[in-house]
Design goal:
Length: 126
């Protein structure tokens, strides 16, 4: 009996934690959401600072940012923007989709946000 009470309490606490995390994500600004999603990949501290600097410069964390010259789109300035459809069909409007795609791109191409930021600082793009 005691074990079933403990299990029920643990389950309730875990559910409350998940609900709280979902609420935090649902109300987060794109930048706050970026920090949450980056941290899930271990990109905290200096790595978060590099990502923040990179996307601040690229789009000011604006999910609707579009480069009039190149057509690069969204928070990570994907070129073309439709590449982000590999994550989800809502890539034009959903910051979480854009951030997820951008983090995947950075990890695949540069390894870390600081790798991407360093490249961007040296050549002006990433």
């Amino acid at each position: 009996m005691l074990e079933s009470v403990k299990a029920a309490r643990t389950g309730a606490v875990e559910q409350a934690t998940r609900d709280s995390e979902r609420a935090q994500i649902a109300t987060a600004s794109p930048r706050e959401l970026g920090q949450i999603l980056a941290a899930e990949r271990g990109f905290t501290g200096d790595q978060w600072s590099c990502l923040d600097s990179l996307w601040q410069r690229e789009s000011n964390w604006n999910p609707n940012a579009e480069n009039p010259s190149s057509g690069a789109y969204g928070i990570p300035q994907s070129l073309p923007g439709s590449k982000m459809a590999t994550v989800a069909a809502d890539w034009r409007t959903n910051p979480a989709t854009q951030i997820t795609w951008g983090l995947n791109y950075i990890t695949d191409r540069y390894g870390t946000p600081c790798g991407a930021w360093g490249h961007s600082q040296s050549v002006g793009w990433y």
